[in-house]
Amino acid sequence: MTGEDLRLIGAALGGILLAVLMIVRGRLHPFIGLLCGAFAVGLLAGLPLPETAKAVQKGVGDIIGGTGLVVALGLSLGAMLHLSGGAATLAKGALQLTGARAAPWATLGIAIVIGLPLFFETGLVLLLPIVVAAAESMAGDDPAERDTAKLRLIMPALAGLGVVHALVPPHPGPLLAVEALGADLGRTMLYGILIAIPTAIVAGPLLAKVTARGVRLEAPVLTDHKLDIATPGRGSALLIVLLPVLLIAAGEIGQMLPGLRGNTALAAASNPVVALLIANLLALPLLFGRRLREAAIQDAVWYETMGAAGAILLAIGAGGALKQVLVTAGLSDLLARIVLMYAISPLLLGWLVAVGIRLAAGSATVATITAVGIMPGVVAGSGVSPELVVLAVGAGSVFFSHVNDPGFWLVKSYVGTSTADTFRTWSLLETAISVVGLLLVLALSYVV
């Protein structure tokens, strides 16, 4: 490695460290911290300030212009399911079909289904109040046993949401990784589901048997709110939840069949933005009925959507800026040379880069955006399956949620755990998803 290579690595580490200090110690929003980190990387690497600024603008524009639409449409769909009570009726209906013994497995399945088209925080806000209420009704009389029983119902739901967020498009992180690495969307979805299910089983019901013991819960800080309207039917809610995934899957399968290949309607349906837009348009009449035109309902849906979208889009846009500066400075090419020189597994490298960004920035989506942005050269040079790199990066992006992750505080507030017990339960759950996911990706690489 040359002196320039070492300078580039030092610049990358220095910029990321600055972002960490500003976010964690300075308590600044990730948007500001990541932008400052991006400029620091460029200047420390020797890029002129105007060139660094152009890279920052390009990075933000690429992310907001592409993934931003998916994020916004997913959040609006989540707001409709939340405010109409559609997600609640779907979850309660599924839990009524199971007894107390099967309830953890039921909540795992519900979380995977409900989490498929939604951003992680949206799925969390939708599902956790329902699961917490169900856990209250199913728990026994002894306080210690009640808390353990409640956690053994809640943790599988968190695992289900976590695995689809990390591993299964059309979630924004995996979807952006698919686009950045030129991976096949249908194949990535298939591989992601194959890996997500066993990963969720290990990180959810099985791990909860160990981590839930001895944890005492306080009253949740956050509670659920929805509009005072007639609750939609379970069939309508289930259709809205599954529709984006079904449209994308139908489009991808259609392109593989000789008789349907080239069909423009199917090709359009496989576009995540189109699929989510169709789901949004159908959700309004199916979930709200004739009341969809009421100003109060429209205001509530879009107020909830925009409030969440603003913070998320700013954070992932700044993550895109950091990624682009790293690429412009030459880090992607350097990593490709290192992989070829030292025979490092590209899958392990992608996972490690995502883990580093995750621990530094907190956001799983920012970790994915940054990691995949510097991996194209590695993928092209090594010939590794881009679909598996997408999944390896996705697994790394959820490693050990801690205090700089908004999801950490959401889980703590909804579940009622102390900070220490949130580390013991939620942080370990995320780490299990990350490690088991990587192991399964590595195993799958020997098969496909």
UniProtKB/TrEMBL annotation:
<protein>
    <submittedName>
        <fullName>Gluconate permease</fullName>
    </submittedName>
</protein>
<keyword id="KW-0813">Transport</keyword>
<dbReference type="InterPro" id="IPR003474">
    <property type="entry name" value="Glcn_transporter"/>
</dbReference>
<dbReference type="GO" id="GO:0005886">
    <property type="term" value="C:plasma membrane"/>
</dbReference>
<keyword id="KW-1003">Cell membrane</keyword>
<keyword id="KW-1133">Transmembrane helix</keyword>
<keyword id="KW-0812">Transmembrane</keyword>
<dbReference type="Pfam" id="PF02447">
    <property type="entry name" value="GntP_permease"/>
</dbReference>
<keyword id="KW-0472">Membrane</keyword>
<comment type="similarity">
    <text>Belongs to the GntP permease family.</text>
</comment>
<dbReference type="GO" id="GO:0015128">
    <property type="term" value="F:gluconate transmembrane transporter activity"/>
</dbReference>
